[in-house]
Structure formats: structure tokens, C-alpha cells
Predict the structure.
Amino acid sequence: MHFISEISSGGVSQRGFTVDGVPGVLWQPDGLPHAGGVNREGLHGAGLHGAGLHGAGLHSEGRHAGRPLVLLGHGGGGDKLRMAEQARRCVARYGFAAVALDAPGHGERPRTAQDERFVTEIAELLAARRPISAWVARHTAALAERAVPEWVAVLDALGEAGEDFGPVGFWGLSLGSVVGIPLAAAEPRIAAAVFGLAGHAAQTEAAARVNVPMEFVLQWDDELVPREGALALFGAFGSREKTLHANPGGHVEVPEFQLAASERFLARHLAQHLGRDLDITE
Amino acid sequence: MHFISEISSGGVSQRGFTVDGVPGVLWQPDGLPHAGGVNREGLHGAGLHGAGLHGAGLHSEGRHAGRPLVLLGHGGGGDKLRMAEQARRCVARYGFAAVALDAPGHGERPRTAQDERFVTEIAELLAARRPISAWVARHTAALAERAVPEWVAVLDALGEAGEDFGPVGFWGLSLGSVVGIPLAAAEPRIAAAVFGLAGHAAQTEAAARVNVPMEFVLQWDDELVPREGALALFGAFGSREKTLHANPGGHVEVPEFQLAASERFLARHLAQHLGRDLDITE
């Protein structure tokens, strides 16, 4: 894990890193002790894995032992920095840490021939007003197969870097859910999740294996995700505690109060894992 | 409006009253000035309409001018005092007032021949494992026709009694929604509403005339309300801001966190009507 940049404002530090070449950002409360913010080996691209932070002895000091960590999965066409506002709220409102990655073919990452083809073909399908949900599901499923092990590697690397994080939550809609659902099914460190704006049969099998508390966000007039598919996907989740929040509007029109509610949902469950009660109801 | 009883505990006063023979309960923060709690004319059943409270000059003093008021509609087979816990939360958490009535044929009210027949026949249908939703919808629609003008009369009476209430919210599931939906469609004083556990075509027309912010609570495995009907009813509401919250479980298994979320929904919208921001997100 190589930290390559750091900026700080409003009490929140934002540090860029890479893990196995995947670029990500970590947001935390400002002023936590770490190795000068920038891992110099990382800056020069030749460092030992996580050496900079490990050297600072954060783990033994335990200054932020057990801090909940929220993984933020961006949507299709987005990138890690699109999650900055939400990440900063997680830090400022709840004292959590948050991390986002560029999904394969997004942000700073190179596009494969497959990624390029997807962009071209989806534009053609949209121009021809043909249904795109099956095509999107197929392509994003391929992205998810690449993205899931990347998230697992980042969780491993954060642990090895001496950042003593507590319970992990996942938040991701649309492509964020296509990646997050199989991730939550496979990754026992994830203790609560927010999904939504998804609903293809290809996601059902993984959803059935998710058994942590889960909030599902649905847009009633979603032009990209058929309502029946989204309702069926909600029904398929294995979680004993799951809650569906539906609001009018299209795919990109999730209301602000819903974003806040989803953050509170994660906060309530992650706090419970710490045996604390934040007096949070949503 | 005749106040006939008063008890007080934990900072909340609970006063029994009748309006045109309909028994109700009003919950408010304790210690507000009013005419000794019990309207003596009311106690003796022969007083002037609201004289006791009017005489105390509450309105001119304005001690609780604009206090939001939440109307609590109980479910089928319930009564006004079933709403006590929720009412006390509205008062204690948000400083609001709350009121509940016995629906026709419920609580202290006499049962008509029609009410008696309903109880007998629904038991027979249940015993025969026959579908009851159409039958329930027909009977509760008849109850609602009687109950809506009773709620309007109580709002009028509270105003005449000098209780200077602010924006009004309605909360009611199941029978509470069958009554509340036409009430909210007809009553411009209602500024926000929580409905749910309902979904018969008979409710669609009134729902389309509701245009205030609305939260709809759905139980995914509701044995009394078909899921498709509930989803269709949500879709029918005329409100620009409406949000559907669905959770697993049967008709009477609405989770605690959902009740808290619905109360926060009302609190956020009623506070907005006062031009205040309670920093409430749900």
C-alpha cells in the first residue's frame, strides 16, 4: 500500500494511495498520527509494502483502534473522487474512515478493449432506444469479477499498514452494487451494506448469500433498472434485517434525504458492532 | 371539546377528551398552562364548547404557539391508548403534541350491528382460510366514511379550545391509513403523513389527491395486504415527495427502527413548516 498524496480540509484528511496498481483514496479525521501523510517509498514507486505507515507504529498506539470503515463504491462512469462528499460526511458526522477505489476501466485506470467496446456499444444502443439493462448487467458483471478481489486486497493492505479499523460497511449504488453484492457475499469483514439502483437476475445468487443488515435504495421511475427486477433482487437478499427505500424519480435522482438516511443506517449498524449506541435511528 | 381526565408522567401530560361523543386523548409536554387540566363543565357533561380552555387565555399568551400536532390513527382492533407509547415519543423527543381517537366501533365506542357482523364474518373467513382483503377493504372503507369527519371536528375543536397548534402530521397504518388517506386528501391542515400496511384499489382515488410529503410503510410478507396492491397504492399517491420503506415480516411485525424512522420523517417535515431545521435526517 503506497500513500502518494495528502490534502486536508475541514477536519478531514484525504490521502491518495495505490494497492497493486489500483488507485484509491482514504478519508479519515484530520490530525491522526501517521507517517507524515505521504509514504515516501510510495511516492517514489519502489517502497516496501506499507512500510511507511507500519514504521509509525500506529497499531500499537491504538489511537484510532476499531474506527469503523465505510467502503464507497462509485457508479458506472464515476470514479473514486465522486465519493468525496459522502466520504467527508462519514468522517465529519460519525468519526468513521472511508475509502473509495477507481473501478476497472474508470477514473485514472486504463480502459481495456472490452471497456472501450462497452462505451461505444452502449451509446449505440441508447441512440437506437433499445433496452440496455441486459447488456449493462453483462458488462458490469465482468467488471465486478475484476473489482471484488481488488477491494479484498485493499482491506488486507489497510490491515497490514497498521490502520486498526473496526467494523466495515459498504455503500454502493448501481455499478457500486454490482461490485458490492458479490463482495459482501464473499467478505466476512463487511458487517452492513447499502445497495440499490440494481436488479438483474445475474445478481440474485450473490444477494442470497449476503446475510448482514442491508438497506436497498430503489428509484421508482428508474429508466435503467426495471422496477420488477429491483424488487425481486431486494426479495432475494439473505439478510434477516433488510429494508427497502423507494423514492420517485430516475436513476440519478436519489434524493438528498435518502443519502443521509443510508449513511445513518450504516452508522447505526457499525456503532452496534462496537457495542456502542450512537442514539441513531433512521 | 370536553376534557375529562388528566394524568402526567415523565414530562408528558395525557388528557382524555370527547368531541361530539367521540373519545380521544391529547398528549402534550407537561407543565403547559391550561385550565387545570380537567374542564369541569366537560366532567359534568354539560359545559360550553371548550369554555374551560378558552377561559385560560392560552391562545393570547402564545406559550406553545405553533406546536406541531401529530394525529395518530390506530389499526383495526386497536384503540386510542394503543398509540400512547408513540405519542409519548412525539412529545418527549420532538416537543410535539399528539392526539388519538377511538375509531368507530373501537375502544370505548359502541359497536353497531354492522361492526358486530364484521367481527363475526371476518372470523369465519379466517377460519375457512378464505381471502379477506376485499372484505376488510369494504368494511374499513365504511368505517373511514364515519371517521374522517370526526378527525376534522377534533381539529376544529382543538383550534376553538385555544390550543394554538402549528403544522399537523398524520401517522396511521392499516385501518389508520384507510381512514388517514381520505382525511389527508380532504384536510388542508395536514402537512405530512405516514401511511402503510394498506393497498386496496378502493384507496387509490383518495391517494391520488394526497399531495403532501408522505412515507409509506410496507411489510414484505404481509399476510393481509397483497404486496402488489401495496406497491400500486404507493405509486398512486399524488405527493411529489413520497418514500416507500419496506421490511421483511408480517402485518404486525413492523420493526422498531421503522417506527422511529417514520416519526423522524414527520418531525423533519413539520419542523420545516415552522421554518426550522431540526437537523433531522432519516
Remarks:
- The two ends of chain B are 35 Å apart (CA to CA).
- DSSP finds ten helices and nine strands in chain B.
